Amino acid sequence: MPDYVTSVAEVVGESAPARPNHVDWGHLETTLETELPTDFKAIVAAYAPIQLNGHLFLSHPNTELFNLAKEVDRGIKAFERIDWQVAGAQFRGENPRFGGPDGLIPVAGTDRGEAVFLCRSAGPLSWHVIGFSDDGEHFYEYEMGFAEWLYRYLAGEDMIGPGSGVFYPGPVLIEDLPRSPGDRVVERRGPDRKM
Question: Are strands 115-120 and 127-132 parallel, antiparallel or unpaired?
Answer without folding.
Answer: antiparallel
